[in-house]
Amino acid sequence: MTHEPNVTPAEEQVTESAPDVGALQAERDELFDRLQRLAAEFDNFRKRSARDLDLARKYGAERLAQAILPVRDSLAAGLAASASGDADGIAKGQEATLRLLDDALASAGITEIDPKGERFDPSKHEALSMMPAPNAAPGSVLEVIQKGYQLHDRLLRAAKVIVARGEDGG
Question: What CATH number corresponds to the domain at position 163?
């Protein structure tokens, strides 16, 4: 470092660091621009996500609705056929309609809970009553009054059941 006559060491240090201030300001400006772009990208992402969520809510049942429409058509055809009074044909039509409905539910991930003979499970079954049953294990399901349903692993409706009671009444 050479000292010029009339320049103090502190002034010399300020003069040498002046280009550093310019570089720091340029870096600050670049970082600020990047921050503004990221904020804009995040805002666009948030808006897109909200739009996608709205569409999912609005049209989320579309696949199930498409699967159920043939069931509705079959029911309408069954009502028209009932005018003829053919009981056998009506029964076969109802069976076909039930199969269509079961297929539609299965395609949406909805499965039936039919626990007859299984051990009572309070997380999937609702006990309506208990009955003595010498030929059944205590705590097992004797009769299913109303089947239950679950969507994948989430319970939609518990199966309503009658449970076998042991000899001691419990």
Answer: 2.30.22.10
